[in-house]
């Protein structure tokens, strides 16, 4: 796809300084810009690159005035970083603007779908599935019976959505994610042999939820596992049965949340965090990477460590841990002195 400086300025409500018909077809970092590329300048540390970049078009703040000759056409905007992000979003929307049903694919009985559906090759859509407008389901995806998918949602290649799942509007599910597989429910008998507890609940993803590649969200034993509006889940995360995650919480890769735990809104959870089941984590909690959370956390707390401690307590303890050898030596010396 090719765009002119004039077209880009129209999208960004910017002003062109240079050739309005300058044309670009790719994106680049400012230090790596070549002919035909679009870049941006937002960080003052990269200012010197604008005088050497070969990028055809550069987005800059309105306050920028070159101090020497430049070859790149400028688009001046209020905030170069935000404008470039807006342009990336627009470009992504154009790139994903597919529609139609490719073959082979299967639509089972009583499937309904809205306008501009894209269904890639080798997809299976189960019975009684309801699909909204502008939904994109990429090849090799599976959607089980009685699933609902809201408007403007994207399922990338190889997504698996089990039966009864409810997916809201504007969600994105990346390749390899699995929504609605059985929760980990087993009970031992007298001989220690485990029998499976039927998992008959479902998963609900509310609007604008992002699910990363190879992330799994288990269906509830009873009721629903609920991922609320605006939640962002990274790749390779495990969310167990009956978990509830509050609005606009973000969780980084390789984190595991055990069954029936409730996580509040606005939380930030780092990578490789382990959270036990049946606890409550409050709103606006911060959990540092590789922490092990074994008890409930109140609103607004920041914790770190395994088991997780208050953030300041952990840092104080870590200082002592680093000096542990010296502390032990000092204690041994005091013992010797006490014997004299």
TrEMBL record:
GO terms for cellular component: membrane. It comes from the Bacteria. The active site is at 241 (proton acceptor). GO terms for biological process: lipid A biosynthetic process. It is an enzyme of class 2 (transferase). Residues 22-89 form the UDP-3-O-[3-hydroxymyristoyl] glucosamine N-acyltransferase non-repeat region domain. InterPro entries: Hexapep, LpxD, Trimer_LpxA-like_sf, UDP_GlcNAc_AcTrfase_non-rep. It catalyses: a UDP-3-O-[(3R)-3-hydroxyacyl]-alpha-D-glucosamine + a (3R)-hydroxyacyl-[ACP] = a UDP-2-N,3-O-bis[(3R)-3-hydroxyacyl]-alpha-D-glucosamine + holo-[ACP] + H(+). Its EC number is 2.3.1.191. Pathway: Bacterial outer membrane biogenesis; LPS lipid A biosynthesis. Pfam families: Hexapep (PF00132), LpxD (PF04613). GO terms for molecular function: N-acyltransferase activity; UDP-3-O-[(3R)-3-hydroxyacyl]-glucosamine N-acyltransferase activity. Keywords: Acyltransferase, Lipid A biosynthesis, Lipid biosynthesis, Lipid metabolism, Repeat, Transferase. The keyword Aminoacyl-tRNA synthetase does not apply. HAMAP family: LpxD (MF_00523). Homotrimer. Catalyzes the N-acylation of UDP-3-O-acylglucosamine using 3-hydroxyacyl-ACP as the acyl donor. Is involved in the biosynthesis of lipid A, a phosphorylated glycolipid that anchors the lipopolysaccharide to the outer membrane of the cell. Belongs to the transferase hexapeptide repeat family. LpxD subfamily. This is UDP-3-O-acylglucosamine N-acyltransferase. It comes from Flavobacterium cerinum.
């Amino acid at each position: 796809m090719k765009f002119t400086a004039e077209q880009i300025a129209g999208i960004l409500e910017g002003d062109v300084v240079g050739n309005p018909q300058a044309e670009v077809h790719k994106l680049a970092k400012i230090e790596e810009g070549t002919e035909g590329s679009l870049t941006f300048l937002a960080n003052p540390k990269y200012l010197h690159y604008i005088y050497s970049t070969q990028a055809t078009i550069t987005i800059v703040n309105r306050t920028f005035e070159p101090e020497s000759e430049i070859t790149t056409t400028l688009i001046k905007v209020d905030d170069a970083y935000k404008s470039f992000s807006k342009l990336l979003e627009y470009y992504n929307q154009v790139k994903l603007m597919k529609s139609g049903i490719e073959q082979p694919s299967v639509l089972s009985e009583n499937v309904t779908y809205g306008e501009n559906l894209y269904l890639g090759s080798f997809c299976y859509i189960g019975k009684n599935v309801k699909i909204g407008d502008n939904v994109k389901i990429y090849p090799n995806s599976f959607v089980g019976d009685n699933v609902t998918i809201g408007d403007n949602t994207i399922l990338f290649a190889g997504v698996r959505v089990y039966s009864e799942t409810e997916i809201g509007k504007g969600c994105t599910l990346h390749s390899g994610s699995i929504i609605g597989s059985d929760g980990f429910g087993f009970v031992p008998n007298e001989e220690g042999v485990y029998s499976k507890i039927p998992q008959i609940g479902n998963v609900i993803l509310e609007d604008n939820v992002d699910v990363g590649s190879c992330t799994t969200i288990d269906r509830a034993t009873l009721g629903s596992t609920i991922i609320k509006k605006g939640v962002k889940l990274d790749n390779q995360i495990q969310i167990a049965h009956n978990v509830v995650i509050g609005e606009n919480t973000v969780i980084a890769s390789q984190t595991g949340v055990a069954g029936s735990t409730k996580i509040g809104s606005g939380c930030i959870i780092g990578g490789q965090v382990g959270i036990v089941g049946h606890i409550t984590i409050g709103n606006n909690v911060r959990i540092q990477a590789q922490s092990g959370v074994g008890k409930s956390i109140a609103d607004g707390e920041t914790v770190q460590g395994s088991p997780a401690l208050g953030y300041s307590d952990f840092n104080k303890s870590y200082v002592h841990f680093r000096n542990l050898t010296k502390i032990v030596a000092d204690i041994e010396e005091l013992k010797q002195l006490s014997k004299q």
